[in-house]
Specification:
By secondary structure, the protein is mainly beta. The protein is about 10% helix and about 45% strand. It has a five-stranded antiparallel β-sheet with strand order 4-8-11-12-13, with no helix packed on it. A four-stranded antiparallel β-sheet has the order 5-6-14-7, with no helix packed on it. A three-stranded antiparallel β-sheet has the order 1-2-3, with no helix packed on it.
Length: about 160
């Protein structure tokens, strides 16, 4: 059954729809990073993922670049927290009315247990503003009048 796992000293072995996946302890620890802003430059590894958080950056030609998310830095209630998702987390995804639980987003978008375990959340003082590699919150979308843009990039 997908989702079942066994913790070992070397990490976690988890059953997925595709077979077995190995996760290191760094992929699902409870650590969090705190960022003051809006001017910041961060590049490093967090929970087994490469993370780049830069702002302000010039307006990109395309806001829907693969692997990069762009946010309106002036709409963020600083400080920012980068962490794994937690049960009960909600966000108002771009283009959607109302809030939705991240758990329901994972189910609707058919995230594998491995993708769920590796998902990163960027949250401000008012809640979740970005889900890595997926969506940003509607309230931090880049508008034509946006002055300062924050770039959030993650990769494996």
């Amino acid at each position: 059954e997908p989702g079942r796992y066994v913790d070992t000293p070397a990490g976690r072995v988890q059953r997925t729809r595709e077979g077995l996946a190995r996760l290191s302890h760094a992929d699902f620890d409870d650590a969090a990073l705190l960022f003051q802003g809006p001017e910041l430059r961060f590049a490093g590894t967090f929970r087994g993922r490469e993370v780049h958080l830069h702002g302000p950056v010039p307006r990109p030609a395309k806001l829907d670049s693969p692997g990069a998310q762009y946010l309106d830095a002036d709409q963020i209630a600083w400080p920012l927290t980068l962490r794994g998702w937690e049960p009960g987390d909600r966000m108002n995804p771009l283009g959607m009315k109302g809030k939705k639980k991240l758990k329901d987003i994972f189910t609707d978008e058919k995230f594998s247990p491995l993708a769920k375990a590796r998902a990163l959340v960027l949250a401000d003082a008012n809640g979740v503003i970005a889900l890595s590699d997926f969506r940003i919150a509607h309230r931090v979308r880049v508008r034509p009048e946006t002055q300062r843009i924050l770039q959030f990039v993650t990769s494996t």
